[in-house]
Amino acid sequence: MGGTMSDDRFLDALRRDSASLQDSPDPHDPVWTRLPARVRDAIDAQPAGLAQVLAAWLRPLAASLAAVAIAATLGLGWLEWSSAADSGLGDAAAIEIGIAGDAYHVGD
Amino acid sequence: LTDNDTDPLERRAIEAVKGGDGAAYGYLVEKHMRRVLSIAWSIVRNASDAEDLAQDAFVKAYQSIGSFDDGAAFAPWIHRIVTNLALDTLKKRKRYPEEELQGSEPAARRDSASLPAQSNELASRIDAAIERLPGMQRVVARLFLVEHFDHAAIAAMTGLTEGTIRSHLSLARGKLKDELQDLYGGNDE
Predict the structure, then answer these.
(1) The whole model's pTM is what?
(2) Cβ contacts (< 8 Å) between A52 and chain B: which residues?
(3) Cα(B21)–Cα(A55) distance, rounded to whole angstroms?
(4) What is the pLDDT of residue B106?
(5) Any CB–CB contact under 8 A between B59 and chain A?
(6) Where are the alpha helices (DSSP H) in chain B?
(7) For residue B145, how many other CB atoms are within 10 A of its CB?
(8) What digits encode the pLDDT tens for the residues B12-39?
(9) Which residue among B30, B122, B173 sits closest to A17, beta carbon to beta carbon?
(10) What's the gap in Å between the CA of B1 and the closest CA on chain A?
(11) CB B54 within 8 A of CB B82
(12) Do residues B39 and B147 lie in contact, with contact meaning Cβ atoms separated by under 8 Å?
């Protein structure tokens, strides 16, 4: 075969030889600690986005509302139970006694 | 992990950041910064600018993370962001017009001294040849040849169609083949 390298083979060979051109600083290069620190500082220096603000506010708010809802449910339940118990006791305790034609009520 | 894989830690980090835990973002930065920096450097060819662009890309991604699809891979997204920022930088530098790219000197690599002499010479020839390509041909050639992205990935990163990417690459290949004929002009077999 006397032809020149095909386009596909050329591109494959070039791609293989070009891999070493990737920018790959030494693992100990300060850029690997500097870049995350720069990103962190830049994020800290900027006002949080709407989503983050909402998330930061809504999470404790939702937790508080949930606590209030649980307390209200328990409270209402207790009140209902308590009033039911009271009325039940009242009914049970109300006694009518008749003596000599007069009616006497006990427990009202 | 490839660029398209999502690891559970990454997914958890994204959920945490969306929930307001900014510290969780550190995981995403640490995981992707090498590739992001390399893409930026490939396009703008300046270490300082590349670092600024990598920072800007991560900050921009953080600010927009609320719109990031749950379950999607972070890599293609951050690659697209840094590519767009780098292309904007080229435009601002007014280096984008094709004629201004002619004769520009390739930037020195950070670690060129550590390469073996022979591979350094080969790499330098290829680097110079790619650098002489005009505008988007150069960008596409670098993303394909150096960064090893496929056509679809480059299309997604640059906002161009796959057909346009193939066209740029075909033109670049012709020019590179002419320029590097003494290195790759041998027989096919």
Answers:
(1) 0.70
(2) 20, 22, 66
(3) 9
(4) 44
(5) yes
(6) 8-18, 25-44, 47-63, 74-93, 98-101, 117-131, 135-141, 151-158, 162-179, 181-184
(7) 24
(8) 999 999 888 888 999 999 999 999 999 9
(9) B122
(10) 18
(11) yes
(12) yes
